[in-house]
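Translate structure to sequence.
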């Protein structure tokens, strides 16, 4: 399958983006097995940097297990809905969309059981999903019911016009009441399934504000995080890099801080409605197992 690079980009990232029906792992495997060429020359290094205009040809990619798109009658906590979109408060432990090996327990499976259409803009196996949350992260997600709404909402997220505010319980007490973390994020070369702050990674910006706690715990704090970019595991990686990992984070926090349910919640979503243009702001309180509580007014101070 011949493709043309639009700009500078890692080879594996480019192929995965152009062929979303294949997992990143399968793409990397194909590159290492000599199934991908650049300008007619076989390249076996996934991190090879493409230049604008270069021709990439993919001979074959190992077959992935089919994604389970079976509708599942799973109750959803819908916080906003009309004929164009809905906003769901995703529970802990629910994956956003199907993946090889997952059963019919994802948000997509639950959405497919509802009596309305879903956008196909993100691919057949991610119907309706405009943006995702990690499996153990709770909170608000936008779901598009048609491609027009999907494109408009995705563009707002890309242009930073849409607001996404999270709350998190973190280790220790940050030095400043409000600060910005501007550190590039990329794949951890030692553990490809994890992300890390690294030179040469993609730009990542997280704004953080400490929420005063009435309990005044000695070893933990409640913070608000407003995303300016949306990299994989961004909040968790950024906070961990500052010495304030999220409580319950099995991947980026150390024992005993990584024990228990992860204390990261997408509390506020604000966006312009793709049909009416009116500003929509949706809030979902943190789940009952959140160790430090806050009010909507504290989260909305970002606005």
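Result:
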């Amino acid at each position: 399958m011949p493709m043309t690079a639009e700009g500078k980009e890692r080879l594996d990232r480019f192929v995965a983006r152009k062929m979303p029906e294949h997992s990143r792992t399968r793409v990397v495997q194909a590159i290492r097995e000599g199934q991908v060429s650049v300008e007619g020359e076989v390249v076996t290094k996934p991190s090879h940097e493409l230049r604008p205009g270069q021709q990439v040809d993919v001979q074959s990619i190992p077959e992935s297990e089919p994604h389970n798109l079976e509708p599942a009658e799973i109750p959803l906590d819908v916080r906003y809905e009309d004929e164009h979109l809905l906003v769901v408060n995703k529970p802990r432990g629910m994956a956003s969309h199907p993946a090889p090996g997952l059963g019919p327990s994802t948000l997509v499976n639950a959405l497919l059981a509802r009596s309305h259409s879903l956008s196909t803009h993100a691919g057949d196996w991610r119907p309706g999903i405009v943006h995702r949350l990690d499996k153990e992260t709770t909170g608000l997600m936008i779901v598009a019911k048609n491609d027009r709404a999907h494109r408009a909402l995705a563009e707002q997220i890309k242009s930073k016009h849409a607001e996404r505010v999270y709350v998190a319980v973190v280790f220790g007490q940050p030095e400043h009441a409000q600060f910005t973390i501007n550190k590039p994020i990329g794949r951890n070369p030692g553990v490809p399934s994890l992300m890390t702050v690294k030179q040469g990674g993609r730009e990542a910006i997280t704004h953080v504000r400490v929420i005063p706690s009435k309990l005044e715990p000695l070893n933990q704090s409640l913070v608000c995080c407003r995303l300016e970019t949306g990299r994989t595991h961004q909040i968790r990686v950024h906070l961990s890099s500052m010495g304030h990992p999220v409580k319950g984070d099995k991947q980026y926090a150390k024992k005993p801080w990584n024990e228990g349910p992860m204390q990261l919640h997408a509390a506020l979503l604000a966006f312009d409605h793709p049909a009416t243009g009116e500003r929509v702001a949706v809030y979902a309180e943190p789940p009952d197992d959140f160790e430090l509580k806050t009010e909507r007014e504290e989260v909305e101070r970002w606005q």
